[in-house]
Write a structure and sequence with these properties.
Elements (H helix, E strand, L loop, with lengths): L7 E10 L2 E11 L4 E5 L6 H8 L7 E6 L2 E2 L5 H7 E4 L11 H6 L12 H14 L14 H14 L4 E5 L7 H16 L3 E5 L3 H7 L2 E6 L2 E3 L10 H8 L3 E6 L2 E6 L2
Parallel strand pairs: 3-8, 3-9, 6-7, 7-8
Antiparallel strand pairs: 1-2, 1-4, 4-5, 9-10, 11-12
Helix pairs in contact: 4-5
Length: 257
């Protein structure tokens, strides 16, 4: 996989809300066919970067290429076929059935009405996520965790080449978090590329392949001698005392005091 062109290439990207700078000259690469995790404190710019990569925020300076193509050249239909994007927040409005919500993920493939193939792809996405039993339920009556799993199934129904997930486990209980991370791992092992924002470094280190750290709107890079789970490096990222506990060829980390 190391010989593949990057799935995402960002060069000197800057962004500000009004006069408040959020991202400052960001440059990074997201390798194809891997599970990359974006980590950092709240307010470091992670969600803003994800919204830019998803095509939902324009930026002042820099370049973003997705699968070798300039992001700004994508039509909305083309972007939906290449990129699946799960934002951090979502407010349900209409009481559509779960199956109908997932079927909206096929919008870029549908001209007038969904075909049987679209319905079957939606059903397969529900089965893949493990929520086929919810398909007739009104989406608005589900718990926050169940709604999150439906939204993930909707992204899978798009059949994108690259998936962006902004804090996908934030509304899930412990078992469903583990289920989701195992599902992401399976998707990546089947040649999908996934970039996710995760709050928990331990989940990232357990399931991820590649790690990018943001601090104060800039990429914080490891030295040649550092590893992502090293205590001193993580203390620099999170501005708090930490312990690093060896686990296999990686480590678990905990905060101190």
């Amino acid at each position: 996989m190391g010989d593949l062109a990057p799935a995402i290439q960002v060069e000197k990207l800057s962004f500000a809300y009004e006069e408040r700078p959020i991202l400052n000259e960001i440059s990074l690469e997201i390798p194809a066919g891997q599970f990359t995790v974006l980590l950092g404190k709240n307010g470091s710019g992670k969600s803003t970067l994800m919204r830019i990569l998803g095509g939902f925020l324009d930026f002042e300076r820099g370049n973003v290429h997705i699968m070798g193509e300039e992001l700004r050249s994508f039509s909305s239909r083309r972007r939906a076929r290449v990129l699946g994007y799960l934002p951090q927040h979502h407010r349900p409005v209409f009481p559509f059935s779960v199956q109908d919500v997932v079927l909206t993920g096929r919008a870029s493939y549908v001209t007038y009405v969904p075909k049987q193939e679209d319905v079957e792809i939606g059903i397969a996405a529900l089965e893949r996520v493990g929520i086929i039993h919810l398909k007739e339920r009104p989406y608005t009556e589900l718990s926050g965790g169940e709604q999150q799993l439906v939204r993930i199934a909707r992204v899978l129904a798009q059949q994108p080449r690259l998936i962006l997930l902004d804090e996908p486990s934030s509304h899930l209980d412990f078992l469903n978090q583990a289920h989701l991370l195992r599902l992401i791992r399976e998707l990546v092992d089947a040649d999908l590329t996934v970039l996710a924002v995760l709050h928990d470094p331990n989940s990232a280190f357990l399931y991820g392949d590649h790690f990018i750290f943001l601090k104060d709107g800039a990429v914080e890079r490891l030295s040649a001698a550092e590893r992502p789970w090293d205590r001193d490096f993580l203390e620099r990222i999170y501005d708090t005392k930490m312990d690093s506990i060896p686990y296999g060829d990686r480590a678990f980390v905990v905060t101190k005091g």
